[in-house]
Amino acid sequence: MEIISVHPRGYCQGVARAIRIAYETVQKHPGEPVTMLGMIVHNAHVVKACEDLGIRCLEDPRRTRLELLDDIDSGIVILTAHGVSDAVYEKARAKGLQIVDATCPDVARTHDLVKQHVRTGDVLYIGKPHHPEAEGVVGLSERVHLISRPEDLEKLGPLSQVLITNQTTLSKLDVQDLVRACLQKYPDAEVADEICQATSVRQQAVLDLKDVDLLIVVGDPHSNNSNQLRELGARAGIPRALLIGDAQELDPRELRQVSRVAVTSGSSTPTALTEQVLSALHTYAETGSWIIPDLPQDPLL
Ligand code: SF4
After folding, report:
1. Residue 133 bears catalytic tag
2. What are phi and psi of 85, to 5 degrees?
3. What are the pLDDT digits (tens) for 99-135?
4. For ligand 1, atom 2: residue with the closest CA
5. Which domains, and CATH codes, for the chain?
């Protein structure tokens, strides 16, 4: 069995920065209550490592970031890489919380673009419903309209000076399809592609794979960019694509009859988890035994 280690993969700058900010916050404020507003990034291992540092992680997919703030009464609140609307900053300040902002600079740039545009026009924002990044952008103005499927356009009437933009971690192929649908209804709209560089190069590396019969994406099931990599694998013609959280989730029976397996990971996946999967695969290819090596002491590094 040939094992292809796909590059680039794993942590992007925005995620690495958010994790560093969380670590530094705890070091600088010993004894103070620190709460993360949502999962710092969508990876259970990273969330657990933050909890081990003493950070309380507030997450409930049925509640918005604004609503989750009701559960924080004092101390420091860390805003995650996904960004939040202005209403969340205002509410946190009104509650007297100290804000530590780990919003990814790429997401912040989308916020600036949208805020600037809604002064004079409307925004069609291609994003995933209930995803925190989409929640943050849609919450910026009533002139931002979330589009997650072509049918969402049907309820919209005439709009002025339309800008079409998108969530940073979507599949570039899905975004292209939805941009076409938006342009059919609003042919004069301006388009600003906001898929971030990290997402784009990781997706292209999967689309460029040739003669692979199994793609393994190491990533959390909540991670949008990890799910997109798996779906792109299928669209790139790879017969099977699996999303696994870590090596324990890979059943070696999946490897029977596989001659070329490619391994990649989402931008919120710690490198150590992907290295562990690769190492187990190499051992399996050489010996036929499925042996999972231990993770390093600090799996986030
Ligand atoms: S995937 Fe892109 S937008 Fe998201 S944190 Fe990473 S660099 Fe930022």
Report:
1. yes
2. -75, 165
3. 999 999 999 999 999 999 999 999 999 999 999 999 9
4. 196
5. 2-11+197-287 (3.40.1010.20), 13-104 (3.40.50.11270), 106-191 (3.40.1010.20)
